[in-house]
Specification:
alpha+beta; 5-stranded antiparallel beta sheet; 3-stranded antiparallel beta sheet; globular
Length: 179
């Protein structure tokens, strides 16, 4: 009886420690830096998108999308800093500065659509001076579709609507920035 209890305890512990869908970055932890900060809108950063990697995608994942959103922006609706989608399911990383459209660092056919800056690609943090600390939520979405059927000119709210309809699971990193 003791052996059976021990085996059941080990099995329960093993199953309860199942790996979860996880987003990681070698470039950002709890804070963004001048390296990620936008260059424009009164900011003078390098505007380098962070390296991102993910693991343990859920069963049924056909593609991925990445968003970076600031809910603290004084707009009434937040601010979208990066919107990337149609990332093939066999990809599990975007390298540092992949958000710079001129460098072509994303896999072929990956779309980086409009941000709230009205640009394509990455637009880093740039909170108004004196507005306090802003949270930037970087999210990887595991999607049940290969393609969203949207273009590089699609606004972030429409992309978000399609993501809401197609997300199986998601994982996020929250970083903070203050000017």
């Amino acid at each position: 009886m003791k052996k059976l209890t021990l085996v059941l305890l080990l099995l329960t512990t093993t199953f309860s420690q199942a790996q979860t869908f996880t987003l990681k970055s070698k470039d950002v932890g709890g804070q963004s830096t001048k390296k990620q900060e936008f260059n424009g809108f009164g900011c003078s950063g390098e505007n380098v998108s962070p390296q991102l990697s993910w693991e343990n995608a859920p069963k049924g994942t056909k593609s991925f999308a990445i968003t970076m959103y600031d809910p603290d922006a004084p707009t009434g609706s937040g601010f979208w800093h990066w919107v990337v989608f149609d990332i093939p399911s066999n990809i599990n990383e975007l390298v540092s500065n992949a958000g710079n459209m001129s460098l072509n660092l994303t896999p072929k056919n990956v779309i980086q659509s409009k941000t709230s800056y009205n640009i394509n690609g990455y637009g880093g943090p740039c909170p108004p001076e004196g507005h306090g600390i802003h949270a930037y939520i970087i999210t990887i979405h595991a999607l049940k579709t290969d393609k969203l059927g949207l273009t590089e000119s699609t606004n972030p709210e429409i992309v978000g609507y399609y993501l809401w309809q197609n997300t199986i699971e998601k994982a996020s990193i929250v970083v903070y920035y203050n000017r």
